[in-house]
Every structure is written in C-alpha cells, then in structure tokens.
Amino acid sequence: MFKKFDSRISRRDALKLGVLVTAALGMGLPLSLLTKSAVAQDLGTEQLAFLFDQKKCIGCKLCESACRSANQEARDEQVKWRRVLDNGGDEGEGHFLSISCNHCADPACLTVCPVTAYTKRQDGIVVHNAEKCVGCGYCMYACPYHAPQLSKKTKRVTKCHFCYSRQDQGQQPACVEACPKKALTYGKLSELKKAPGGVATLKGLPSPTITNPSWVIIPKE
Ligand code: SF4
Ligand code: SF4
Ligand code: SF4
Fold first, then answer.
1. Which of 103, 109, 121, 141 is deepest in the core (most CB within 10 A)?
2. What is the DSSP string of the chain?
3. InterPro entries of this UniProt entry (predicted)?
C-alpha cells in the first residue's frame, strides 16, 4: 500500500473545487456546456504507454526532476506531473512507484471536461489545452490518479503530456531518458503488456477498470 496515494480527493480540495466551479460559472460558462462531454477521437491501435519496473527503481527521483526541467509548466510549485511514491522504505530498499498521467484508453478527464480542453491523439496521448481550460476542476475529481493538478498561478489545470513534442522529434520522454536504472521505459502498450509479470495496478492503487490506464507495472515482490 502506498501511504501517499489516495485516489479520493480530500474534503478540503472538494470545497476549493466547489469555489472554482462557481467561479467558472461566474465567467459566463453556459450551463449546457457543463453537461456536454468531449468525444474521444478515433485512436487506432498504437496506444503509447509507460512501463515501470519496480524491481529496478531505487527511488532517486531523477524522473521527477527531469520532468520539471524539461517542461516549463511543470516548474509550478503546486504541481508535480511525475511523482515518485514510496512505501516508507529507504532509498534502494523500499518499494517505489513512479507515476504520472497514464494516458488512459478511457480518459475520465476527457469525458467530464465541459469545454473539451482534452484531446486524445492517434498514439493515445491525452493532451490538455490550457487555453480552453476554465479551471472548474471536474477532471481533478474524475481522474483516479491525481494527474490533472490545479496551478494556483494560472487557476487552470495542468498535467503530463507524455513529452509529445520530444517524441514527435524522435526523442524519449524526459523522465524516461533520465532514469539511471531503466526502471521507467515507454512504448506501444500492446508490446509492453508482453513483459513477464506485468500488471495494471498494485495494492492501494485504483482499479484499472475505471479508466483503462496505459501503463504496465512489474511489481517488486
Ligand atoms: S490518468 Fe487521469 S488525466 Fe491521465 S488520461 Fe487517465 S483519467 Fe485522464
Ligand atoms: S481541463 Fe479540467 S479544470 Fe479545465 S475546464 Fe476541463 S474539466 Fe475543468
Ligand atoms: S512524459 Fe514528459 S511530461 Fe510526462 S511525466 Fe515524463 S517528463 Fe513529465
């Protein structure tokens, strides 16, 4: 069980989000929009995914810091696009989990967003458009992985985009590139699923049936 992972949003955050929804409505957002869901594009069969090998991770958090360095928006103090969680063990000995947005096959964020700020690319990457975002927080409620996070600075949500610009230029995602132990890799989900011992969740994490996340975890016994 990961002590720092709770898929439920706290009461305090819920109250804050209530204020934000009111603010969004105050900005003149039509009520009809609040009930309209975005429709996912045709995805094809090339869904990209992360593979996290818990056996190899030493908890150094270089993936976390690489994400911050590579992405201007991820330098906001209130947000952390990639997080390394632990179960209390020492560096090199504990059970760690490096987690970001899972670019789910059924992205709850995209489904609930009233202003279609999310799109899903043909390669399955779920992209958030901050220009469209009104900061209502619905996606923060909906995502079981706490991937969309509110920037207090911009009053809009922000999240991992799988370094699609880097990928489009033939580079690896920054977090993957930075991992010294190759504990974090990426590729086509259909290929990664063939990894021996790979699973889609761990004890204490949400059920994969909620959003069909695009990740494979190789658990450390
Ligand atoms: S992990 Fe959350 S934010 Fe990412 S695609 Fe899935 S539901 Fe959306
Ligand atoms: S991206 Fe999230 S916070 Fe922004 S408008 Fe959509 S649901 Fe609301
Ligand atoms: S893929 Fe890119 S944006 Fe996403 S967590 Fe890794 S470094 Fe950050």
1. 103
2. --TT--SSPPHHHHHHHHHHHHHHHHTT--HHHHTPPP-PPP-TT--EEEEEETTT-----HHHHHHHHH-GGGGSTT--SSEEEESSPPTTTS-EEEE-----SS-HHHHH-TT--EEE-TT--EEE-TTT-----HHHHH-TT--SEEETTTTEEE---TTHHHHHTTPPPHHHHH-TT--EEEEEHHHHTTSTT-BS--TTSPPTTTT--SEEEE---
3. 4Fe4S_Fe-S-bd, 4Fe4S_Fe_S_CS, ET_IronSulfur_Cluster-Binding, TAT_signal
